Each structure stands twice: as C-alpha cells, then as structure tokens.
Inverse folding.
C-alpha cells in the first residue's frame, strides 16, 4: 500500500521524469502549481478583455487541475474564440510581464471601478470586510508603460517597453507568480466553455465560464490530457448505459438512481460483503426510517446548519416531517431508548441508510452527485479511553474493505479544531491525540490540516487513487462532541454517575451510489469476477446443445455463480463478440465435441483461451479467483 503525505491534486507525483531542474518538495510543487494556475486565470481574463472589450470579469480561481474565469459577455464564446483567446494568452506569457501587488484605498478603488464600468468588481469590493486590506494584482504596469514603473526592472529576454494596452488588473488576495514568463506557454491549454451563475445563484445573472488547465511542463500537460481522454472512455454514465447497470429517469426527477438488474446484482454483492465484514468486526446492524418529525432535525442542529441541503418538510396531520439528510440522529434515538452501562461499551452500530439531500440540478452528475443515496454509515459509542483503539479498528477495517475492492493507494488527512467549535479544550485534545495515536500505530503518514475540522470534532479523511491516478474522497472518521450534548446522551459510569459517551461517525464507501460510480470508472466496466453481474456465459453453437447448456448453467447457479445461457440464436462469432462487449469475464463454448465429451471450451477475459475444461475444473478455477478477489 502506498500513502501520500499531502493533498497534491496533480499528476506531478505520478511522473518522476517531469521534475523541474531545481528540485522542489511536493508541498512546494503544489504551491507553485497553485501560483501558476491562479496567474493563468488572470492572464485568461486579460486576454478575453483584450479580444472582447465589452466582456465584464467576475471571479477566476485556480482549481485541482487548472483554473477558470467567469465572464458576462453579450455574445457566446465559440470554439474558435477559445483558440484566439489561448493564442492571446501565449503572447501575454511570452511578453514576460511583471505581476505586481498593490494595496489600495477603498474609496479610491471604488471610484476607479465605477469609471471602468465593472459592476461585478463593485460587488466583490463590497463583500470585503471593512477592516480588511484591499489588494489588487497588475499584469504589466499600472500606469503608462512597464519600464516606467519604479518597482520593475526591464526583462533580460524582452528589454523593450511594453505598450500600455498590455496592462490589466483585478482585485485579488493572491498568490501569483512574479512574472508571466515564469509560465511555460506550451504547458497551458483552454479546455471548454460552460454556463454558470453569478455567485452560484441561479436567480442571478448567467455567465460564461471558460475552463483551462496549466502545468509546469508540456509533458505534464500531455499526461493530463491523456488521462482526461482515458477518463472519458471510463465515464460511469456512458458505461452504465452500455452495460445496462443503472439509469437516471428524468420522468421521476433528476438525481434519483434506478438500479437495473445487472447493477442491482453488483449492489447486492457489495452490500452482502459489507454486512459480513462489519459483523465480523463486531458491529450490529440497524434499520431506521426515511423521515422523521422536523423537530428532531432542529434538536440535532441539521435544520440550522444544513437547511439549504434539505428538502422542504412534508405536512403529516398538521405536523412537519422531514426526509432524512443524515442517519446520525436516528442512531442517537436508538441509543437513548435504553440506559446504557459503561460495561456495554463500545457499541458499534452500522446501517446502509438511504438519505435525501437537495442538490441544484446544475450540480447533479451521474452517480457522483445525486439527491437520494445510501450511506454506509456507522456510529461508535465509547468511553474516552477507548477512542484510540476504536479509531485504529476503523482504519484496519477501512484498509481491508478498500483493498478487497482493489484500492491500495491512499492519501490521508487529519483535520483539527477550527476557530468556531463546540466542546472544551480537554475533550478536543483527547480526541485529536486519539486520532494521531491510531494513525501512528497504523503506520500511515498523513497531512495535518490545522483548523480544518468540523465545528463538532476532529476528523480523518481518506482518499483513494484509482487506476488512472485520480483521487476520490471516500472514507471519513469523525469524532463528535455536538450530538451527545444536544441530545443529552448519557451512560452509567463505574462510579454510578451519569457521563456523556464519545460518539464517532464513520463511513468507508461514503455512499453506495458514488462508490459504484468510482468502481465502474476504476475498472472501466471490467469488474473482477467476484463483482461481475454475469460471471460466466454459456454459448451453445446451435439449438442441439441448448438443453445441455441450460443444465450446466443450472449447476453453476447452484454453486452460487451468476451464470446464463446466450439466447440470441446468433452465429458463434457474434455471440462471442457480444459477450466481450458486455465485459463478461468467462465465456464457455459448447459445440458437438463438448456435448459428446461433457467438456467446455473456455476463454477468460484475463487469460484468453484455456482450451477444454470439465465443469468441475472451471468451478474450481472461478472459486479460487473469487476467494482472492482477482481477475480471471
């Protein structure tokens, strides 16, 4: 298993031959890429306003793989426009212009923005707190020409003065590079244009968002573009349709998943595995309702803190009921049904609980972001001196489960107490120390995100790296001081007093829907034998062998295999091709020779032609592959 120390969302760690001439630490590299991308966002805006003077600029941050900028432009950007904008960006980069930070007076900059007729900049200015410093960044010189600015020396590679029109600025807190020439123009590319709303609010102006990507070297850019093309090939939405695994039926509303028979088979395998693994790890399984009285969500705090992510309440006999966005309060109520003794701890309760969250239609994305999904939720109630051991147990279970699904490359983050939080220092220190102790006992390196925890407790996040190098947030372990306090949870301590238990939230998959989408893309639909919806397909050459094929399929089913007989009546070549397109791991051909010898002509996706095998030999081979969670 490989673990990465930092949250470096790039291909840099995957490509040792792409290191710069002056070696940087991974953290330095991440910061450098951030500066490159943030600077490219400003260069993009500058290029757009040079080519489209009527375009108004809004916001332009850096992203995990590049940058974007939103524009209010009277005409839609076309693919040809993107080519022109990209060429203009390269000119700005090659001009090696200085990038200068300036602290400005609020009244003076407001007057300047009004003169420029940039209404979005005015809104941004108004959102900056009165007591905060206001900074802007120039590309080029603030006045009449680059070489006239007292802070800037002429470039050695471009010693001529830059014309005033190569000068642009925006309100920004940074960080940026010192010069545009520090960017390799061959490592930058514009990717697409899409619609976006100002401030993400669909009641406000619709804008045009231009996406770009930027890297340190052209080799990194090419690796990213290749990965992007491979990601398109593996897109779970496309493969989900081709393999008849699931659908999103718009007639029922967006963001709601329909599991088709083949997808449901895989889900059943995943759920059965999950239940067995948790039972073996000492968990009890719960089932709780899908909705509850709204007052419960007010008590838990979800109504106050997550109101925007909750559906509207439903009126039931003049009482408001709420679809659950979380399972946690239901587990708390289950706990409170009885008075517990310290001798019962730890209590480990797990549930595959379906929750419902309001997501705007523009944010929905296949299985990755939906409105109804099933969390592999669990809550542990324990004593303070049990926390470290319980966290370690969760880490061990997480490693076992993720490894069995083919993920052994992780990135681990520890998030600590934020400024605004509940609970005293002592309990925060105890919980944080327990998380650290568990990680160090496990031997996992991690990055500490100081102040990045939730207001109700510190947490560990685990990201998995898939077959093409992408990171996906899946597993979370969260200590919670809030819900025990809000609900007045108690247990009887050894001295007879009533004490608060420690509550630990944890999920390993995150949600079944999203994890299934990750699995589809990780395997490109080529699931290992133990997960494949159809494990073996029998192909009779003609109707003469069909009855025999049906008998064999029945024997395979009795052994627990997902087997079927091809019913198309097509020629053998076409039935083989169809099975391959459906990504079936094992194909067994039955002709006259196989019928007479009671053998099967077997080919597998991983090993190719295996020749003639008896049914028992094939069963043994598949049983071994399933036991090892391997391909066949």
């Amino acid at each position: 298993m490989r673990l990465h120390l930092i949250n470096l969302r790039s291909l840099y760690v995957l490509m040792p031959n792409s290191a710069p001439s002056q070696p940087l630490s991974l953290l330095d590299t991440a910061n450098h890429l951030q500066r490159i991308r943030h600077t490219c966002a400003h260069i993009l805006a500058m290029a757009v306003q040079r080519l489209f003077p009527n375009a108004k600029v809004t916001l332009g941050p850096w992203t995990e793989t590049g940058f974007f900028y939103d524009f209010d432009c009277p005409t839609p950007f076309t693919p040809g426009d993107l080519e022109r904008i990209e060429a203009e960006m390269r000119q700005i980069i090659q001009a090696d212009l200085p990038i200068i930070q300036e602290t400005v007076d609020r009244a003076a900059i407001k007057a300047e923005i009004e003169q420029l007729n940039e209404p979005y900049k005015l809104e941004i200015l108004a959102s900056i707190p009165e007591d905060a410093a206001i900074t802007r960044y120039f590309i080029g010189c603030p006045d009449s020409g680059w070489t006239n600015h007292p802070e800037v020396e002429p470039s050695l590679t471009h010693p001529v003065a830059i014309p005033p029109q190569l000068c642009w600025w925006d309100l920004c807190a940074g960080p940026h590079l010192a010069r545009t020439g520090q960017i390799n123009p061959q490592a930058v590319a514009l990717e697409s244009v899409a619609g976006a709303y100002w401030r993400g609010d669909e009641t406000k102006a619709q804008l045009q968002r231009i996406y770009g990507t930027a890297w340190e070297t052209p080799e990194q850019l090419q690796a990213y573009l290749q990965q992007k093309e491979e990601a398109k090939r593996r897109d779970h939405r496309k493969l989900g349709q081709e393999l008849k695994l699931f659908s999103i039926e718009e007639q029922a509303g967006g963001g709601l998943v329909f599991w088709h028979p083949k997808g449901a088979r895989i889900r059943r395998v995943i759920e059965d595995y999950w239940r067995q693994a948790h039972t073996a790890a000492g968990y009890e399984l719960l089932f709780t309702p899908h909705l509850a009285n709204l007052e419960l969500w007010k008590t838990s705090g979800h109504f106050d803190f997550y109101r925007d992510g909750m559906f509207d309440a439903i009126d039931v006999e003049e009482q408001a009921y709420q679809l659950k966005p979380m399972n946690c309060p239901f587990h708390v109520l289950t706990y409170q049904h009885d008075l517990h003794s310290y001798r019962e701890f730890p209590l480990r309760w797990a549930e595959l609980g379906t929750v419902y969250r309001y997501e705007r239609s523009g944010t929905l994305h296949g299985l990755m972001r939906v409105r109804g999904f099933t969390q592999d939720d669990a809550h542990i109630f324990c004593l303070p001196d049990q926390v470290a051991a319980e966290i370690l147990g969760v880490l061990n279970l997480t490693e076992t489960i993720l490894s069995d699904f083919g993920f052994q490359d992780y990135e681990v983050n520890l998030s600590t107490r934020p400024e605004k939080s509940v609970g005293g220092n002592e309990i925060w220190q105890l919980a944080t120390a327990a998380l650290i102790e568990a990680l160090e006992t496990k031997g996992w390196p991690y990055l500490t995100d100081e102040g990045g925890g939730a207001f109700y407790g510190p947490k560990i996040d685990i990201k998995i790296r898939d077959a093409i190098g992408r990171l996906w947030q899946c597993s979370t372990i969260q200590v919670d001081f809030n819900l025990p306090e809000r609900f007045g949870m108690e247990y009887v301590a050894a001295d007879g007093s009533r004490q608060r238990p420690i509550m630990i939230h944890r999920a390993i998959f995150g949600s079944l829907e999203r994890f299934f989408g990750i699995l589809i893309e990780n395997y490109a639909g080529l699931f290992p034998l133990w997960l494949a919806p159809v494990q073996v397909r029998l192909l009779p050459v003609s109707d003469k062998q069909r009855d025999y094929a049906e008998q064999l399929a029945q024997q395979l089913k009795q052994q627990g295999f997902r087997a079927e007989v091809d019913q198309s009546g097509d020629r053998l070549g076409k039935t083989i091709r169809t099975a391959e397109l459906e990504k079936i791991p094992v194909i067994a051909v039955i002709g006259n020779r196989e019928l007479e010898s009671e053998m099967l002509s077997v080919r597998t996706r991983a090993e190719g032609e295996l020749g003639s095998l008896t049914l028992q030999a094939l069963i043994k081979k598949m049983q071994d592959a399933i036991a090892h969670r391997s391909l066949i």
Observations:
- The two ends are 23 Å apart (CA to CA).
- The chain has three domains: 23-234, 241-288+327-523, 536-627.
- Confidence is low (pLDDT under 50) at residues 1-29, 144-162.
